[in-house]
């Protein structure tokens, strides 16, 4: 038997873990059977030699990277098909599908990404049964590859401002798609550049000169045999970006392109042969795919962070620097409490959003069932939750991914650490699927509406039910329940103050719109505060629920993280709490001590906690974060892959440097 070689620092760390790592992995995977299934798929995927990169992606040209990503996407599709994986990729019907870790074989995203995440879900969500039957099968077999083309050069946020038109021609029973201006060109859809041959186009429907709002159309853009753009279709790639460079985001314009009437997805709204429009029960149903994707982003954000924190904590355990005590060797940098302060909150935040994402997914599935029988009552609350949790998960996790990168010092700046790429794909979540400020304003709109209705006696929806409580001052209480209560007070305080400002501004003569704009900094604060109260509440209640079934050792460490999360947020938001609750300086002093004690308590479990995320080396893709902890050896091996290291002297020396040295330039 050959013994696995592991850096002694990591061996030591693993020996201090107080809980069963596998038990936590199973919990994060939503069940032992899900862990087993995930690992079985990973075994398959990572054994396919075509899915391995010979040369690191960052040394390839833009074109080569794209071609490599296509090659890998095709092999991945094939192996997943053989493995029988459909869930998660095509239709997330189960939350266990969230940990599709094999997707990390694309450091910068797959050009097939939108096929799985939005094209197919839109067919399923917006098509009527006949359309689903036709298009879903074709997409499932990859006979057609599609994307979701909504954003235009001129408008992404303001969907009502989209300019792409779909004009119905009842004589031929066709829609005519047209891009009337440069700003109406679609811009951003993943895979659109050179990969997809179909797409969902969100366009303004017009019948006999009358507008009927944005509707989804399924449009063929390239020939299925030659892949040439069809007549009247202008399509290409938008160029290099901060990240997503292998996603092949594209542009698209139409010059009077005709598509059959039945290519409008007609589950909710219909256009009859003679041009009669039947409106959906709720016009916002056309925005359904966005709600679904926002819900799933909460999990993606948590996942990116959990990868970054695994890398940073493992590296911090093997990296030694400076002196803590003069006569002792250089300590592991993880022994510096400032380092623990940067990183342990990353573990807790990742747990918080992961457990919240599972809860939110259940809320979404429940709503779907109700929607199927014509009940849309919960849509406003779901929309507000999806917007707000998308925002705070993406911004918190991205901030912490960057913190992980910085916590690795210079080596965290290496592409081979994979931290820069993780930051790139993570920060994209702050922009796509609804820019974060805009999503907070949507949340605020729902909160203000609920507040005003509430003041007229209407009941609050479950996540806003605490609005009904009188905001009477009470003694500060540092228990979890007490802190949650305090954050709810902050949320009530900020919302009530925003509403007062709105009322004052309108009383002073401003229009409702100008009053809203003037108070909007307060409004996004109120929206964020509601989101914080929701996450604190759900994270705690989910861990209390799981705490009843897991071992006492795991329960204890899960609660250490919940406490860390609560106390960290309390110290971060001290200003708000001082304003809206009875928090005193004395309480802050004791909370700081509590925080320092918690860091100390979590320290022996730090490596165990990140091991429990169960990211194999192929998933982490990082010189700094490998399971064995041999960071320096890996850094050197990767550096030797630089094409510049293939020859001792580069030709530019003879061409430029030498003439310069000899004064012969
Ligand atoms: C900002 C808004 C919400 C404004 O929309 P609007 O029609 O102008 O709305 P309004 O007239 O102000 O009315 C608001 C009203 O509509 C409701 N509403 C808005 N959105 C939804 C929804 N999704 N579900 C359910 N309800 C929704 C709001 O709550 C308002 O309701 P109310 O009037 O207050 O009762 C919208 O334009 C929007 O969602 N913009 C963001 C665009 C976006 O998310 N694009 C995503 C493109 S795809 C993408 O990025 C893919 C990336 C994926 C990847 O690469 O992986
Ligand atoms: C990596 C990536 C992938 C993408 N993939 C797709 C895709 O597959 N398909 C697709 O259709 N789209 C896609 N998009 C587009 C994306 O959805 C939009 O970029 C996003 O919704 C933001 O819209 P915008 O670009 O118009 O930003 P803008 O709205 O122009 O935002 C610019 C600034 O204006 C502010 N602002 C705008 N409106 C308001 C307001 N009402 N109140 C206050 N402030 C406001 C914003 O807060 C922001 O600070 C992608 C984008 C990225 C970055």
TrEMBL record:
Any one of the GO BP annotations: fatty acid beta-oxidation using acyl-CoA oxidase
Gene3D superfamilies: Acyl-CoA dehydrogenase/oxidase, N-terminal domain, Butyryl-CoA Dehydrogenase, subunit A, domain 2, Butyryl-CoA Dehydrogenase, subunit A, domain 3
Catalytic site: 433 (proton acceptor)
InterPro entries: ACOX_C_alpha1, Acyl-CoA_ox_N, Acyl-CoA_Oxase/DH_mid-dom_sf, Acyl-CoA_oxidase, Acyl-CoA_oxidase_C, AcylCo_DH-like_C, AcylCoA_DH/ox_N_sf, AcylCoA_DH/oxidase_NM_dom_sf
Cofactor(s) this protein cannot do without: FAD
Acyl-coenzyme A oxidase N-terminal domain segment(s): 20-145
Record's keyword terms, sorted: ATP-binding, FAD, Fatty acid metabolism, Flavoprotein, Lipid metabolism, Nucleotide-binding, Oxidoreductase, Peroxisome
GO cellular component: peroxisome
Primary localisation category: other
Domain Acyl-CoA oxidase C-alpha1: 287-448
Superkingdom of origin: Eukaryota
Pathway: Lipid metabolism; peroxisomal fatty acid beta-oxidation
Binding site for FAD: 151, 190
Pfam families, A to Z: ACOX, ACOX_C_alpha1, Acyl-CoA_ox_N
Location of this chain's protein in the cell: Peroxisome
A Gene Ontology molecular function term of the record: fatty acid binding
Domain Acyl-CoA oxidase C-terminal: 480-662
Record family assignment: Belongs to the acyl-CoA oxidase family.
Protein's recorded name: Acyl-coenzyme A oxidase
Organism: Leptosia nina
Lineage: Eukaryota, Metazoa, Ecdysozoa, Arthropoda, Hexapoda
